[in-house]
Amino acid sequence: MTATSGTAAKSGRTAWRNWAGNVRATPARVVTPASVDELRETVVRAASEGLRVKAVGTGHSFTAAAATDGVLVRPQALAGILSVDRAAGTATVAAGTALKDLNRALASQGLSLTNMGDIMEQTVSGATSTGTHGTGRDSASIAAQIRALELVTADGRLLSCSEKEEPEVFAAARLGIGALGVVTSLTFAVEPLFLLTAREEPMRFDRVTAEFEQHVAENEHFEFYWFPHTGNCNTKRNNRSQGPAAPPGAISGWIEDELLSNGVFQAVNTLGRAVPATIPSIARVASRALSARTYTDIPYKVFTSPRRVRFVEMEYALPRERAVEALRELKAMIDRSDLRISFPVEVRTAPADDITLSTASGRDTAYIAVHMYRGTPYQAYFTAAERIFTAHGGRPHWGKVHTRDAEYLAAAYPRFGEFTALRDRLDPDRVFGNDYLRRVLGD
Predict the structure, then answer these.
(1) Judging by beta carbons within 10 Å of its beta carbon (0-12, 13-18, 19+), is residue 42 exposed, middle or buried?
(2) pTM confidence score
(3) CA distance linking residue 110 with residue 414, whole number of Å
(4) What is the pLDDT of residues 368-404, one digit of tens each?
(5) Is 396 helix (H, G, I), strand (E, B) or coil?
(6) DSSP single-letter state for residue 291
(7) Residue 7 has what pLDDT?
(8) How far apart are CA 252 and CA 268, in angstroms?
(9) CA-based end-to-end distance of the chain
(10) Among 137, 290, 131, CA closest to 212
């Protein structure tokens, strides 16, 4: 069956936009291949027609990494766990599988990923290709948990890679920004299901920044949120537990995760967008609304939470030793400006890894993320924040708003040339190219 028969393709131009609504594209056609062979045929046909090919998951990136006027590939039909090797501690999963489905399927088999980001709506290939990460003293991004992968290259080949097979491709393709091919399957390291105890606690900005390194050293997973226009933060410490499981109560969990973090938060952001002068007062109230709590549950239920309030985000990865200074500069900048920021600033960490274009490649890292409610002008805030982050050697998250180009990124990543040379070898005609990749990787 060809990629244009049966279930595979829609002709005619249909507009696509990402989750946040800040990126739009109108591809020549949208293809949903039902098999890897159909995907290979799709790539070969598009190349013969001079069309670009981009795969898109659930659109949770804030950049135009997946935008195209060529062929847009939706991998959702390529989904599910393909195999589990308990002896090796691995699970192989099709690229279009949503992280939420992977987590639930693994848990049903008594297994888990070691670390996660804070949402799980993305496909596994979209999340890893853009560098989605959580926070961890010892465990790194989702891409760093990959042990093997397969991808369709520009000439239609299905290429398998791991540390032993095509190791140069493996080093780069775990976080390939869609530049090297279309990922079809990923093999993750998994471990027996375990419990995490989460301790959430309000803390003053001055204290949490003064004790930052201590908190990172003492906890397997530490993160905090600072509320602009206040001196208040909310901290979260996740550590392995012997149990028993003690999840949040149905009512208290709904109040914290749905009413306050989504329902009320949506309402106050809508008010703040309409009347920006109210934001500092709202921030002072909101920063005191979340109380201390402790609960114990399986990993994905602790790492992740629902995110229904839509926003636009910029995040930079800084050398960990520079993060507190940069955060203090960000606070001082906001305090002396006319900016009105209704979203908290998120701070997380990751250990160094060996992925070519990982934001934590070769260095212990701290992430600082800034957000603005969807529909609110964000350029002035993000520009000022980016100026601070880049002054401290920051690397932008590949899937979040930034203005950096190939010249900047080549200096920020010691292995940048290794990645672009591999791209030249695998995709010399830029079948998988687009404007975003042209900006960040060069031609």
Answers:
(1) buried
(2) 0.93
(3) 39
(4) 999 999 889 999 999 999 999 999 999 999 999 999 9
(5) strand
(6) P
(7) 43
(8) 20
(9) 35
(10) 137
